Amino acid sequence: MQTNIEQVTNIIRALPLEALEKVREVLDEETQIKREKKEKSNWQIERYKKARKWLEENGEKYMNQWVCLDGDKLIAHSQDGRDLYQKAKDAGIEIPFIHHIVDESIPFGGW
Hints:
The chain is of the alpha+beta class. About 55% of the residues lie in helices and about 15% in strands. The chain has three helices and three strands, in the order H-H-E-E-H-E. The protein has helices at about 5-15, 15-60, 80-90; strands at about 65-70, 75-80, 95-100. A three-stranded antiparallel sheet has the order 2-1-3, with helices on both faces. Strand 1 and strand 2 (about 75-80) form a beta hairpin. It is elongated, with a radius of gyration of 24 Å.
């Protein structure tokens, strides 16, 4: 059986004061967790958009190389993607944005 919001509301109203305080604590914690997740998600989306814009504007200069970006800032570049990733991690970048720049104007031919 699924509980709806009206049922939950009625249960909460019937609780003693001490239990209401505990419910408030839980709600405050959940609200904070969800707010932080949303803020982090928004930050990651903006960071990705900045990186994509940087790639559009500067990618040609780094053709056939790997680049590590933090938003619209170039952190490092290399011919070796694994080496670049390790350097980013060693520099403390938790989730490095690494991209291999290739000439996408050349059509891929299949059979």
